[in-house]
Amino acid sequence: MAPLPDIVEITAGAHLPAEHYGARSGTLGRLLKAELPVPQGFAISVDAVRRLATGAPADLSLLDGIFTSGRLWSVRRAPQERSWGGPRAVLNLGMTDAACATLAKHMGEEAAFDQYCRFIRAYALKVARLDEDDLEELVEAEYTNRNRSHAELARALLNFCEDALDEPFPQDPMVQLRNALRATARMWAGTTARLLREARGAPADAGLALIVQDMALGMGKGETGVGLAQFSSVVTGLPGAHGRYQRDGQKDAASGRGGEHYLGRDRRGPSLEETAPLVFRTLQELAARARVCERDEVALQFSVQDGVLWVLDAMLAERSGRAAVEIVVRLVKDGILDRAEALMRVAPGTLTEMLHRQVDPKAPLEVLTTAIAAAPGAASGRLVFSAAAAQAAAAQEEDCILVRHETSPEDIRGMHSAKGILTERGGITSHAAVIARGLGLPCIVGAADIHLDERRRIITLPDGTRLKEGDEITLDGTTGEVIAGCQALSEPDLSGSFNVFLDWTDEFRTMGVRANVDTPADARLARTFGIDGIGLCRTEHMFFEPGRLTAMREMILAEDERERAAALDRLLPMQRADFEELFSIMAGQPVCIRLLDPPLHEFLPQTTAERHALAEAMDLPLARVLARAEDMAEYNPMLGMRGVRLGLTVPGIYDMQTRAIFEAASAVQERSGTRVSPEIMIPLVSANREVQIVKSRIERVSAEVRTSTGQHLDYRVGVMVETPRAALKAGFIAHHSEFLSFGTNDLTQMTYGLSRDDAGKFMRDYVKAGVYSEDPFHSIDRAAVGELLRLAVERAQAVKPAIDLGLCGEHGGDPDSVALCQELGLHYVSCSPYRTPVARLAAAQAALARAGQSAI
Amino acid sequence: MAPLPDIVEITAGAHLPAEHYGARSGTLGRLLKAELPVPQGFAISVDAVRRLATGAPADLSLLDGIFTSGRLWSVRRAPQERSWGGPRAVLNLGMTDAACATLAKHMGEEAAFDQYCRFIRAYALKVARLDEDDLEELVEAEYTNRNRSHAELARALLNFCEDALDEPFPQDPMVQLRNALRATARMWAGTTARLLREARGAPADAGLALIVQDMALGMGKGETGVGLAQFSSVVTGLPGAHGRYQRDGQKDAASGRGGEHYLGRDRRGPSLEETAPLVFRTLQELAARARVCERDEVALQFSVQDGVLWVLDAMLAERSGRAAVEIVVRLVKDGILDRAEALMRVAPGTLTEMLHRQVDPKAPLEVLTTAIAAAPGAASGRLVFSAAAAQAAAAQEEDCILVRHETSPEDIRGMHSAKGILTERGGITSHAAVIARGLGLPCIVGAADIHLDERRRIITLPDGTRLKEGDEITLDGTTGEVIAGCQALSEPDLSGSFNVFLDWTDEFRTMGVRANVDTPADARLARTFGIDGIGLCRTEHMFFEPGRLTAMREMILAEDERERAAALDRLLPMQRADFEELFSIMAGQPVCIRLLDPPLHEFLPQTTAERHALAEAMDLPLARVLARAEDMAEYNPMLGMRGVRLGLTVPGIYDMQTRAIFEAASAVQERSGTRVSPEIMIPLVSANREVQIVKSRIERVSAEVRTSTGQHLDYRVGVMVETPRAALKAGFIAHHSEFLSFGTNDLTQMTYGLSRDDAGKFMRDYVKAGVYSEDPFHSIDRAAVGELLRLAVERAQAVKPAIDLGLCGEHGGDPDSVALCQELGLHYVSCSPYRTPVARLAAAQAALARAGQSAI
I want to staple B681 with a disulfide (CB 3.0 to 4.6 A). Which of A16, B258, B464, B594 is the partner? Predict the structure, then answer.
């Protein structure tokens, strides 16, 4: 294959692979093919740009003669992937004394020289790389001198450049262009640019192509301006005109202010739709065509020159997670995407934000002000004005709303602690907005009509009302409304596109998605998320319910076996009732119940006063309660008498739980006629023999219950693999297990020697300093925990190929971890109900990725 | 090769491999070769015995005609390995009415019938397997009837047998013999015998050979009796006559009592040496010859028949650990063993007991009584009379001496808690003696002249003095003396054979043995044990010394960096002084110093009262101390802010420690002219980046100290591999490490998810129930922890073949774990000073085993 040329003209038929000519070139080629009005342009290859940076030759002869008839050109970045960013465009190349004179004929001398001045400044800074401070000093001095004309200013700027460069300001357009290309190429090669793009995920060898594009300047007196338009809502994804338009000609030439328009009609100010309705409608039509040819919702960068519309670029439309789903669902409806492609387009994590709460739409609200809705969902809380105050409030378990002029990385910890964010400044892509969306926090930005006094901790509303620290407010990040007081918030509405989209995941995913559910109430909620069963029912949570705790404590404080048995007898019907409800709700879906796991001392009160109260309530000597609590205290409860160790030491507990499971399952099966398939999971196993012993006790109880109920139950016994030893010995454990479920929380804790509860103090610093590439409790550490999982899977399957393998624990809701589970060949993941949508999408994507479908 | 015959005569030249004819047959063959007087005997093969048990044919025709001229024969067990035990011997086969009549002519009717009676009873029980209770009832009734002669009793017994067997008592000697062989073979095949021998370590297919041996009965009136003799002390191993002799003829024939003799002269009673000096001297001479032919110190089982000495067997002489060493050292001196063989003969664990303390031999002592010295060493403490009381005392950290009539398995926990054991009953192989030797506890048994009232918790001494619970006594388990009061005890004397023996280990072992040493005082002690360096210096212990704790606490409670730096500056000279002393003592041997590991809150007082005192002492607000302590509290300190996490979070601490190490090393190197090679070890690593960061700080400090002192230090930086993740990522960690040292205590805790501190509550039950085959904190779990070690070694060596690999932690003193280290190719183990002798021997044995030398 012949090497691709250093430069090609961007046309409808040109071959413009992104790795050579940048993503933008391809887009422009497609837009041309769709007959959109794109100004003439040339793409310089990544390879040629690299050579330009080092001074090696590149064949750019295609550019010869482009500066005919006073045309001006721009140099625009075209990195291989758009998200990497890069040097900003250099505009109006070809502006010289001669071109300025020609321009003056069309637009008048003052305007022409204003343009010329701006070009010289931009060229001096971006191309000649002159000192910005010196230049700004000069400009400041000149502008202050109100008597100076733009022509005089231009002269001063040219002199300044000549002094600084020790040669005349280039009056040959081709020299300007070549210098601009070389300067841009070098900037990309520089360290600052590299660090910036690497922070955005660019690889070390990321390449930049450049586009030389006609400025398409209209010289008439007609409508002129530049803008950015998208026809879907950033927040909701629903159709609507959004964007900005900077109208030229009306503006104050000296300050650069004025001429700012909304795109569509807006009560807050003038809009393109009103000012130039024809242009607006054309733009709408062009965007619709671009959406088809780009196969996605786009934002058009456009210019209007003497009433003529030019499309300079079409980028992916900015979108919240909710909008992303809405957009792809509509793309599928419109026949533009197929479902698999649609699923690959949405980052699973973004679904979380859709699960946020909302302000009750029917409630009467006092809206204090409305600003930019930057991250959806609603939150109420007390006002705080600093990150530290937010953290303090969170430590007191008080909900708070963090208000700042604007946020910066130093505020991140405070943002984590807040329930919502409100900023006076910034837009939809401001720091606050971006971070809040990442955190799934409701956020409103650009609330310019409130006055914030951070020092005095007061905000003054447009009507003069003052709110101080501690006052309650509510944010609606979906509508942008700041609302007085704490409002009743309703749970998220997951109907519509969300459910349509999620249902598609089930067509493609090969892994089950179960929920971690502790109570019947949780199970009801989880069922609404379209899960495949319960992957982890932590029975201990049932004992914390009022009334049960007493019986539990009696069991723990029992003096002898008789007392203990009596207390267990009282707990049995309560557990049975829970399980009956659970099995009924789950209607035949698998329900995996973990036998009691936490150390028993967790059920005892912690303070002496509470223990005193307990002793009185139970009519026990205080000394006995205290002595028992002291006996049971542990240095490292995580590594102590819990899980199966408890099951072997106080076997009555597991016997009671097993009986409750079997009796409940038998009752529901008999009543409903539907087969109930309980799974019993043994926690914290470190040795095979533990499994054998517990399993044989389970079998004994099973036989007893079968005899008394006459119901045959199709139950399964398995092991929660959460110690490194259990993972390494999975082959042996598999002999006695019908399923293994990886408890990656504890497995991570033990593999790292790191308690999650205690790691909080330094985890953020660790991740920030790159000691850990990411928090291993958020995403499974592939290097070591992943290896243990892999070894366990291999060894278990070698012994029992049909063994059922799952993962329970919050990693089940992390997309990267779900992908790892798919790679490992697990059969299901299980996570908290609210994370199951993420898991379903991640599982679908993982399956599609395995099948060769690539993500966005 | 032709199959070995079912039976062979035991002769000097016979081929008698132990796997076919039992260990004893080989011994007898060798004794015959050495011309010892061994009665004629035949060995029946393991294979033939198996057939006898099932009734399948075996060719025993060699036995035809052995019952000529009234000879009596015995059937004795000969398992493949002596330690497996087995059915007891059946004696005097061939005793019939006729034989009894013949015997009566020689020894008189009463004596002959007495013999006959005893044979019938033994045959009825061991061969005919009649009901023991019925038989004993009869015997009791008969003996109570004083008028009955032994002849009448014999008749009664024969009738009883005939009734029970429904056939006459066999009067054909050959029938008696065949029945005895079959019965013994069947007993070995039975479940009880299998369980018993498996408890002694026998494999499932353990085989038993049988020996048919002439009773060599002398019919004259000369000296007659049976005995067991060994000519080395059980306790010390030093030469001396020990054993017992049961003299026949003088005894009260009816009761079976009397005739008991010591072997050598003894103030407590008659002895063989006095009663039959010629026999005694012959026995001495025979034992010396047996020692040579068995290549070990032996105990001779002998009989004297009408003045003629017969050797029935030569077993390994009973020996304490100390005796074992003494014995093999003498065997080497006498040219009987080479050093390698000698090293393989001593179980490493037995060395521990030699390291016990002793009563100061020059102190004036009030010896209350003297009894059997059953386990060496001395101990002082308060008297307790039950296992529970011993445990209670231990819980209070009070030393106690457990006194019992005799001990049983229920007492084991109490024995663990006691400092020494005293029993009223039992001998050198009693339960108390065996267990105490295993535990390395001083023990005195058979103190029959004290009267123990367990219920009233009082002992009455021979002179009427009473001691009650709580009174102080001292035991000298080496001499058997019970001494009044708590005595000053001196540290063990490790001169003589012990040191000779240990020095031999250094000729063979290929792994280094280092000591875990925390202070200069420890280092001085460790040097006396012939170690190769310090494998682990836990610097935190230095901070607990008075005066330093204050500076440490100031550092912890520092409000800002300046305060912290000031406190660290005060700690620097203290650490430096410690390290200087350490480097001086170790005189150029490697010293591996672990940077601070425990969480800082361990240095703060634990109770509010103590914290109050601290606040006052430091002139700090109490609230600050309390708040700081609360801040620092952790749920699972083992998995929290400790080790390298501390090093990254409060880098000043490691900087200070590193500086102290380098400054101290430079000073000692300059002063002594000897190269000092400090090793700096980073604890609790879980990610490679942790190592990189700490290492670069160490390098910076190193450069600074080199500049200021002008000394070039040959230091090394390494990692303590103690998290599963560090083990799995050892390849990456090796890039930045000059050595890896496995911290198998923590590695075991994390692999099992089990805190050693909290496991005590159930570990014993777990091991007892076989949930864990043994306590993984005592001996490395080969299955999982071992796999992690293997992976780490492979991965580290793949990256850096020359990397130094060691193990620190108490597993370094466990022989099985040391053997594992040898298999893994580690370069050294390190354990507490008192365990280094065990480690040296274990390492030598492991190296010899690798080289093909087999253990005892």
Answer: B594
Q: Which stretches does DSSP call E strand in A424-570?
A: 443-445, 451-453, 458-460, 466-468, 472-476, 481-484, 489-490, 512-516, 534-538
3-state secondary structure of B737: coil
Interface probe with A: pick from B602, B686, B720, B777, most Cβ of A within 10 Å: B686
Tell me the three state secondary structure of residue B498: helix
Q: Which of B693, B728, B765 sits opposite A771 (nearest CB)?
A: B693
What does pLDDT average to over chain B?
Answer: 89
Long-range CB contacts (within 8 A, 24+) of A762-765? A762/B641, A762/B645, A762/B648, A762/B649, A764/A413, A765/B648, A765/B649
Share of chain A above pLDDT 70, in %: 95
Of A639, A754, A788, the CB nearest to B755: A639
Percent of chain B with pLDDT over 90: 60
Which positions in chain B touch A690 (Cβ < 8 Å)? Answer: 771
Among A506, A500, A495, A529, CA closest to A331: A500
Residues A199, A208: Cα–Cα separation, whole Å? 16
Residue A256's pLDDT band, with cuts at 50, 70 and 90, is very low
In terms of average pLDDT, the best of A622-636, B71-85, B153-167 is: B71-85
pTM: 0.79
Is B808 a known active-site residue?
A: yes
- Mutation pick from A722, A725, A780, A782 vs chain B, by most beta carbons of B within 10 Å, is A725
Q: Which of A634, A724, A746 is the closest to B751 by Cβ?
A: A724
Task: Return the percentage of chain B with pLDDT > 70, whole number.
Answer: 95
What Å distances lie between residue B719 and B206, B652, B751, CA to CA?
46, 19, 18
Nearest to A595, CA basis, from A552, A645, A631: A645
Secondary structure E strands in A656-725: 678-682, 716-721
Please tell me the number of Cα atoms within 13 Å of A610 on its side-chain side: 7
Task: Please count the residue pairs, one from chain A and one from chain B, whose beta carbons lie less than 8 angstroms apart.
Answer: 167
Say whether B161 is catalytic: no
Cross-chain Cβ contact A752/B641 below 8 Å? no
Q: What is the mean pLDDT of residues A339-346?
A: 95
- Residue A440 pLDDT > 70: no
> Each residue of B73-99: b (16+ CB within 10 Å) or e?
bbbbbbbbbbebebbebbbbbbbbeeb
Q: Cβ–Cβ of A783/B750 closer than 8 Å?
A: no
From B261, B356, B431, B736, the catalytic residue: B431
Return the beta strands (E) in B510-570 as ranges.
512-516, 534-538
User: Given an 8 Å threshold on Cβ–Cβ distance, is B755 in contact with A693?
Assistant: no
The helix (run of H) or strand (run of E) holding residue A701 is helix A688-709
pLDDT in tens, B677-717: 899 999 999 999 999 999 999 999 999 999 999 999 999 99
ipTM for the whole complex? 0.78
The average confidence (pLDDT) of chain A is: 89
Chain B residues 787-806 with CB within 8 Å of chain A:
787-788
Residues of B with Cβ-Cβ distance to A787 under 8 angstroms: 728
B800 pLDDT above the threshold of 90: yes
* Pairing mode of beta strands B400-404, B420-423: parallel
A-facing residues of B in 142-201 (CB < 8 A) are none
Structure tokens at B708: 């200021």
pLDDT, one tens digit per residue, over B212-223 is 999 877 666 788
pLDDT digits (tens, 9 = 90+) for A695-712: 999 999 999 999 999 999
CA distance B712 to chain A (A): 31
- Give the CA distances from residue A397 to residues A393, A441, A659, A750, in Å, rounded to whole numbers and listed in that order: 6, 17, 39, 29
- pLDDT score of B691: 97
SS3 A172: coil
Span A236-241, average pLDDT: 91
